[in-house]
Design brief:
By secondary structure, the protein is an alpha/beta fold. The chain contains 20 helices and 15 strands. Among the domains are: 78 residues, Gyrase A, domain 2 (2-Layer Sandwich); 114 residues, Isoleucyl-tRNA Synthetase, Domain 1. The strands form 4 sheets. The protein has a 5-stranded parallel β-sheet. Helix 19 runs antiparallel to helix 20.
Length: 523
């Protein structure tokens, strides 16, 4: 990867410095940039421009065709065409993981209703992240945790029971904190037809009903899990009792007002946490710690949880529980996926899961193609709120970024078919030195940056850069195609350009595949 080679080159000259390499903004000349001169100047008291000039004079490597110094001291590098073409012929092997085992738990919606769009965004992010990790040499697995024992499933059962009563003419009395959505009416009708009225049997049936619904919806969304783990299984394995014993034996619990507290403040939390209420009910924290003990015992090198924004305050207490068991804080990484708001006609669509007015993923997929939904969910970093523009998502034109990229791929495949019809089959080593037009070189630079995009995704555990990379790659292809014929009278130039655009099509297909978006040959 070019960025790493630049970093290594500068590190040999300045081993005491932490080298940062950035991309050059489009309004500046150059391909890569460093702020190294500022760092040295701040330490030595010298003028950054003078330091930058000294750095440039000390570098002599075929990787760099030219350097440009921008005041007050940025150094921009122009990469040599020969090196870029070599990357095109022999792309670097991407092996960042060295077969390390990673477990990513995501979605994990309570089995109390359909998957909403915030959880759907987490599904797109988690699945895409796993695909990228596998692509870069990791052994990544997907896991879905089912909270089938908690208070919410009991409230669900009570809410359904009231809906069954409603079907028999009795006014429903759904608890205030129960589930009021009309999506339960059909399930209540099904239970009534089966003659199931026992509250526990209603709960079990409803939990399984929604688990199956989640599996089917996620499959339609292109997301499948390696493992489905139930909270009830964690109890059956005795892990909850095991955790409770460990905490008690270590003196990390105490009683107060007939409740049992975990000394979470000893592990950085803002307050101690109740793990058994005064009524003898386990809070979520105790089985969650036990669940993570189960994960850790399975031999993964790293655990990653992808949670919704309402779980932000839960991070410290869970990590505190893991540390209390004797594991390091670094054993787990929690990624918070921020809210999604649907926009339509310039305004926002109001949503509430409990009231039954939230937009479920299955309903969204009936309105918007899966490819578009997945791509749009990845167009912002996990840490940013996402506005999902329904009007743009419905656009079947190049204004929609998904179709813009797919059109680029389909057009390239059309060009290759046309060339083959003309008897032109690109050789494995064409005369690539013929590539020298600005639009050709911009497309070339986009292609060879793909490994760096994957490296950024792995480092930050956030797949969103791939969407903007693919848009940029498609844009560079379209600009090139508007100005230059691929198949022309000059056979050698045609071969070189066929090789270039074919590489672009493979990268587009690879990138779209990583985020679960299809790549049609014709459009």
């Amino acid at each position: 990867m070019i960025r790493n080679k630049l970093r290594e080159l500068l590190s040999k000259k300045f081993p005491e410095e932490k080298i940062i390499i950035d991309y050059v903004p489009k309004n500046k000349k150059g391909d890569y940039s460093t702020n190294l001169a500022f760092k040295i100047a701040s330490r030595t008291g010298k003028n950054p421009l003078d330091v930058a000039k000294n750095i440039v004079q000390s570098i002599n490597d075929p990787l760099i065709a030219d350097t440009i110094i921008y005041p007050p001291g940025f150094i921009n590098f122009i990469i040599s065409k020969e090196f870029l073409l070599n990357c095109l012929l022999e792309p670097p092997e991407i092996n960042l993981g060295t077969h390390k085992k990673i477990l990513i738990e995501f979605v994990s919606v309570n089995p109390t209703g359909p998957i909403n769009i915030v959880n759907a965004r987490a599904a797109a992010i988690g699945n895409s992240l796993i695909n990228v990790l596998k692509k870069t040499g990791f052994k990544a697995e997907a896991e879905y945790y089912i909270n089938d024992q908690g208070r919410q499933t009991k409230l669900l059962a009570v809410s359904i029971k009231e809906r069954i009563n409603e079907l028999t003419g009795i006014k429903p009395r759904i608890p205030e904190d129960g589930y009021h959505g009309e999506y339960l009416i059909e399930l209540a009708r099904e239970l009534k037809a089966l003659g199931i009225s026992d509250i526990e049997k209603i709960r079990e049936y409803a939990v399984n009903y929604f688990i199956n619904e989640h599996k089917n919806t996620l499959k339609d969304f292109g997301v499948e899990f390696d493992n489905w783990v139930r909270e009830s299984e964690i109890y059956q394995q005795g892990l909850v009792d095991k955790v409770l014993k460990i905490l008690n034996d270590k003196g990390l619990t105490y009683k107060k007002d007939n409740a049992l507290y975990f000394r979470a403040t000893e592990f950085g939390d803002t307050e101690d946490r109740v793990i058994i209420t005064s009524q003898g009910r386990h809070t979520y924290l105790l089985p969650d710690i036990a669940y993570h003990l189960d994960k850790l015992s399975r031999g993964y090198d790293r655990l990653i949880n992808i949670w919704g924004p309402d779980h932000h305050g839960y991070i410290k207490r869970l990590i505190g529980g893991i540390r209390a068991l004797g594991y390091p804080e670094e054993a787990i990484t929690v990624i918070i996926v921020q809210e999604v708001k649907l926009k339509k006609g310039g305004g926002y669509v109001k949503m509430s899961k409990r009231a039954g007015t939230s937009t479920a993923l299955d309903r969204l997929l009936k309105d918007i193609p899966k490819d578009v939904v997945r791509f749009f969910f990845l167009m912002r970093s996990c840490s940013q709120h996402l506005d999902f523009d329904l009007d743009l998502a419905r656009e079947e034109s190049e204004d929609n970024p998904v179709y813009y990229i797919q059109y680029a791929y389909a057009r390239i495949r059309s060009i290759i078919r046309f060339a083959e019809e003309k008897g032109l089959k690109c050789p494995p080593h064409p005369e690539l030195s013929l590539i020298n037009k600005e639009e050709e070189l911009n497309l070339l630079k986009s292609i060879v940056r793909f490994p760096e995009v994957l490296e950024d995704i792995v480092r930050n555990l956030d797949p969103y850069p791939i969407t903007y990379y693919l848009i940029d790659l498609a844009r560079n292809f379209h600009y090139f195609y508007q100005k230059h014929r691929v198949v022309g009278d000059d056979k050698e130039l045609s071969y070189a350009r066929l090789f270039l655009v074919n590489k672009a099509s493979r990268i587009i297909a690879d990138g779209l595949n990583l985020i679960g978006v299809s790549c049609p040959e014709r459009m």
